[in-house]
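Obj: model holo form, ligand = calcium ion.
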Amino acid sequence: MTKRILIDADPGIDDALAILLALASPELNLEGITIVPGNCSSQDGSRNARKVLQLAGASQIPVARGVERPLVQPLVIASETHGPTGLGYAKTPEPTQAEDARHGVDFLIEQAMSAPGEYTLVAIGPLTNLALALRREPRLATAFAQVIHMGGAIHTSGNVTPQAEFNVWCDPHATHMVYHAGLPLTVVPLDVTYQCVLMQKHVDHLLQFKSPVSRFIAGTTRFYIEFHNEYQDIDGCIINDPLALALAFAPELVTCQEIFVDVDIAGGVSMGKTFGYFYKMGQGAPNAQVALAVKPEVFLDLFVDRMEVLCRKYPD
Ligand code: BDR
Ligand code: CA
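Output (holo structure tokens):
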């Protein structure tokens, strides 16, 4: 049976790759995308999501734009990482699909409450939409089958500050609300995503297949690879969000530990730091399955294989 999923994203280069992975995965039925600002503004993110859906013949999937800024923090976008409008150097036709008329927060609530226990939410951006949805409809806390969040850095360095990972750092207050809400939560931190490096050789393999999908992947990742080279000395690019998405149908890619995870919202140098309680004393009950080990080669093979299937399906 296919899993019903929703994606809450800030598309974003690796968000775009995660959307493509969802569309290429027969185990999943992607039923909607909600947009939050982060890698780019929510207007750009919405346009980018609809461009990506159009590339893979999926413009019937609704895209609902949510909030336009974080709960408390000022809005910051990551144009140095994802390009001025979020998709790097990709040249993609404008979408013909209109945005869904509903606000993203209402959309999340409506979908989840229409089928309690059925949807998996893959949240691959800051958690502002989900935090507001939980305030508006507290029953949401038990309405999802699973919430997978790409975010945080537990034993490893942050990628915005030495302590904080980008999605959490953009809206630490929202993350705090969500992590304390009692959701069936899986956290996918940098500890595992930074082992998943998509390299130029993978992109070159896909470019053998003449398709708008392979050209999109090449254009968008060229910017991302340049960023990782320049700022992090990485030969390739980290595909954080596709790993989180893959866990919706292939949880065996990672090993999780069930712990209590919390977020620093005190406003000092470790603002947005996520920390796990590994000692079984002095903390609340575990609130998340946290991915702490990954099989990077198995995941990268899966990702590239599925992108190849999409490229073959949509030739020039
Ligand atoms: C996360 O932040 C964004 O740059 C990526 O899209 C990913 O969701 C990684 O820290
Ligand atoms: Ca993202």
